[in-house]
Design a protein that fits this description.
Radius of gyration: 23 Å
Shape: elongated
Largest sheet: 8 strands, mixed
Order of helices and strands: HHHEEHEHHEHEEEEEEHEHEHEEHH
Distance between the termini: 38 Å
Length: 326
């Protein structure tokens, strides 16, 4: 069994076609088929079911695929690390994150990086949930990840600070001139809810925490994405929640941001399967020291979402908002 055979297998699965995989790999289809058959002999059974219009994974193929992907991507990661190790002056750096962090944090970071390290190409991989992010990093899709702190992670992990989950209202809202609000003050408000809102103990997060504060949130609109929810809130449809850094660019334009009292905070970290060296280490250092990321150092007196939930008398099993595990 060779790395090249696993590369061929992964390409066939991704393309769902021997023909398209051969074109992508710049090899002939007979040569590709020969290598796949050799791989199947090595593992002791068929990995792919050949169909007239494509291929399907067999049960053995489904079991083999994650390991093959990890091997292929680890090899690519090793090549990138070797090229970029000498002072972060060459190669590529693949970074994985969740969508809200990509929108709210990374533009400024990437701009500073490009000025300091113009020889390193950045490749961004975005995911809708923390679970998807962790799964793909474990499979080797990126050199490092930036996102909510994983519950369990066996590789390197570097805390970089906290992001605040805030409330968004129109700029002309009666609350707009304030810096914070207690949750019970919003008992009569309508809410814009995002489909990514986590479920805690069988209930959506907002239902649980508002219920603990003595009221049931009245939902005006349900959206698929946080950015849509923010725009809806800015238009006056209802109150929305979002990471503060995601909406800071709209301040003073058409919406205002309020902290919850006590604040809802979420810890962020850089994590990876392998030691952070070369470009990966340089990027992590930049992220931790750059003052314009929207991430702030941990504050000992601020409440986490778990603490805020507990303070309201509800179960303390709160998880992060948009990118929470379900």
């Amino acid at each position: 069994m060779s790395l090249r055979q696993m590369e061929y297998f992964v390409a066939v699965v991704e393309e769902s076609s021997f023909t398209r995989a051969a074109e992508r790999l710049h090899v002939t289809q007979p040569a590709l088929s020969h290598q796949i058959k050799a791989l199947e002999r090595a593992v002791g059974g068929e990995l792919l079911e050949r169909l007239p219009r494509g291929v399907l994974l067999t049960p053995m193929g489904r079991a083999f695929l994650p390991h093959a992907e990890r091997s292929v991507r680890s090899a690519a990661q090793a090549r990138r690390a070797a090229r970029a190790a000498a002072g972060a002056q060459g190669g590529e750096l693949h970074i994985a994150t969740v969508h809200s962090v990509a929108v709210g944090v990374l533009p400024d970071v990437f701009a500073h990086w490009r000025r300091a390290h113009p020889g390193v190409c950045l490749v961004l991989h975005e995911y809708a949930s923390a679970d998807a992010l962790e799964d793909q990093v474990e499979r080797g899709v990126a050199d490092l990840a930036l996102g909510p702190v994983p519950e369990r992670w066996s590789g390197p992990l570097v805390p970089v600070g906290e992001e605040e989950i805030v409330l968004v209202v129109p700029f002309d809202d009666p609350l707009a001139g304030r810096s914070s609000v207690a949750l019970h003050e919003l008992a009569d408000r309508a809410w814009v809810r995002c489909a990514m809102e986590p479920v805690v103990d069988g209930r959506p997060f907002l239902d649980g925490i508002c219920g603990a504060a003595g009221f049931e949130p009245r939902t005006a609109v349900r959206t698929e994405h946080t950015s849509t929810a923010i725009r809806m809130a800015a238009a006056g449809v209802g109150v929305s929640t979002a990471p503060g850094h995601t909406v800071r660019g709209a301040l003073g334009e058409d919406c205002a941001v309020l902290s919850v009292d006590p604040p809802w905070l979420r810890a962020l970290a850089v994590f990876s399967r392998v030691p952070l060296t070369g470009a990966a280490a340089a990027f992590t250092e930049l992220l931790a020291t750059l003052p314009v990321t929207g991430i702030r150092p941990p504050h000992p007196t601020a409440a986490s979402p778990e603490r805020a939930y507990a303070d309201c008398g509800a179960p303390p099993a709160v998880v992060p908002w948009e990118n929470a595990r379900r």
